[in-house]
Write a structure and sequence with these properties.
Blueprint lengths: L1 H16 L10 H4 L4 E7 L7 E8 L8 E10 L8 E9 L5 E4 L7 E6 L2 E4 L16 E5 L12 E8 L2 E2 L8 E4 L4 E5 L4 E6 L8 E6 L10 H9 L1 E6 L5 E5 L4 E12 L1
Antiparallel strand pairs: 1-2, 1-8, 2-3, 3-4, 4-5, 5-6, 6-7, 7-8, 9-10, 9-11, 9-17, 11-12, 12-13, 13-14, 15-16, 16-17
Length: 263
């Protein structure tokens, strides 16, 4: 009996002195192509949803436990034209499955990295449960695909056309982008609509259809439509200005949110 008890004590001490099991090297951090851009519409308690785009950037040498992120969000509620921009450092959790975004003066955001998607977690780093659990996912965007969130749903009004200010002009052109990639607006005399080309290799705007009103006074419309036809990409600035860039990398259109106009 004494011998059995002694063997039990030895086995117990040996188990307690063993190092903790190592985290598997086969995890999201090491096995998935997680760098890139993700987007989606997150649930919101007091709005229709939060249009969210996040870009994850690896460290320079790929060996660091941290990386960088850029987070852009737009709360869809009446009259809200503000788009928030946050950038900073994220850190991998020891399990290699989750990351923590460190935002200045904000609660830490935790995300779980899965195949071609991110899952937004609660403050304790756990999957959010309930009927909306599947809505807390952000889908990865293909490298050759344009991102239109979160500029969608905001009525943009032209402030500059080919480096010339338009603030003193009447009948200013406007632009509205829908989440599914439709463009519409007012050209200065006629209404217009069409599809965006979501593949970066193609021009930004597809063929646009417009009404056929006879414009009595001269407007910016002909030059505006011609400039849209040569557009290559959008840039949303930290000051919440929307810039349209042509294929030569020049800013050819500048827009600001139209006051009190959000869909």
């Amino acid at each position: 009996m004494l011998r059995i008890f002694s063997l039990f004590i030895v086995a117990l001490l040996t188990a307690c002195s063993m190092p903790p099991a190592a985290v598997s090297a086969d995890n999201s951090r090491t096995s998935l192509d997680w760098t890139g851009t993700y987007q989606g519409l997150l649930p919101c308690a007091d709005c229709e949803g939060i249009q969210t785009v996040i870009e994850l950037i690896n460290s320079h040498d790929g060996s660091s436990n941290t990386g960088h992120y850029r987070l852009t969000q737009h709360h869809l509620k009446e009259g809200n034209t503000e788009v928030s921009h946050t950038s900073g450092v994220f850190q991998w959790q020891p399990d290699g499955l989750r990351i923590s975004l460190f935002e200045p003066e904000q609660d830490t955001v935790q995300l779980k990295i899965e195949e071609n998607q991110l899952r937004w977690l609660d403050q304790n780093g756990q999957v959010i449960q309930g009927d909306l659990t599947e809505n807390y996912r952000l889908q990865k965007v293909a490298d050759n695909t344009r991102v239109v969130l979160p500029i969608a749903g905001i009525h943009w009004q032209l402030t500059e056309l080919n480096s010339v200010s338009t603030v003193d002009q009447n009948q200013l052109p406007t632009l509205l982008i829908s989440p599914d990639g439709r463009a519409s607006g007012f050209g200065g005399c006629n209404r217009y609509a069409g599809d965006l080309n979501m593949t970066k290799a193609e021009p930004l705007f597809g063929p646009l259809m417009s009404t056929r009103r006879a414009c009595i006074a001269a407007t910016l419309e002909p030059e505006f439509f011609a400039t849209l036809a040569k557009a290559d990409r959008f840039v949303l600035t930290q000051a919440n200005e929307l810039h349209v860039i042509n294929t030569q990398g020049q800013i050819v259109l500048r827009f600001a949110p139209e006051a009190s106009a959000v869909d």
